[in-house]
Amino acid sequence: MPPRSPRNPSSRRRTTELPPPAARRSGRESARVYESIRRQILEGQLTPATHLSQQAIAQAEGTSNGPVISALRRLAFDGLLIHERSHGYRVCDWSEAGLDDLLTVRRALETEAARLAARRAGAEDIDGLQRIVKRMEKLVEEQRWHDADAIDVELHVEIARLSRSPGLIEGLARCHLLEVVRRRIALNERITGFSKLADNHRVLVQAIASGDPDRAAAVMHAHLNSRQIRKTQQLAESL
């Protein structure tokens, strides 16, 4: 048998080497710019339909165009920006119809997430959901409106995680992000029925804890559908 040719040590090194320092710096810069623009959108500093200049952002963030372009692409994927050929990027201008459609998509995904969570969540997972509801109770008692927005989304994110479905989790992550936008920017909405916030979510957690997928799905669907009903009632009262 002919002797084996020796391995090329340089080829082995290439498979284990870290990315070059310039690439790592560019990745960190892109993440930093992404977080900065994302925060400005969520806080309303960048209002809907605002056009974003790559050069202006690069100058303001003290970086080059490359990290800015990467960050803008990621924000467009998240649904926070719109890219138009020959016009560049602008902040989404969320219409009533678009937001209603978002809620429809979210309701479908979250209903299935609750169904899967009821099947797959363990005792420790349920304990975690109950701890979030207890924090809600404290916020209700203290009437901390803005914090309630955040913990409401946190609970739904955790239920999505308990579905153990990567595709479902990814799809809902985008819905939850845009839900924050919907509340804080587009509609400037305060949670209605705030005194019942913890009670409603406690019922939802109990349905998931029951281990009955159909019950969990039905409660989640009703929970999200009630938001649409309240919104319609508010609109009718304002006319």
Describe, in plain words, how this protein is organized in 3D.
The protein is mainly alpha-helical. It has 2 domains: 71 residues, Winged helix-like DNA-binding domain superfamily/Winged helix DNA-binding domain (Arc Repressor Mutant, subunit A), CATH 1.10.10.10; 143 residues, Four Helix Bundle (Hemerythrin (Met), subunit A), CATH 1.20.120.530. It has a 3-stranded antiparallel beta sheet. β2 and β3 form a beta hairpin. α7 runs antiparallel to α8. The longest helix has 26 residues. The termini are far apart.
Brief overview, please?
With 239 residues, the chain is mostly helical. It has helices at residues 9-16, 21-42, 54-61, 65-78, 96-120, 123-142, 145-162, 166-186, 197-209, 213-238, and strands spanning 51-52, 81-84, 88-91.
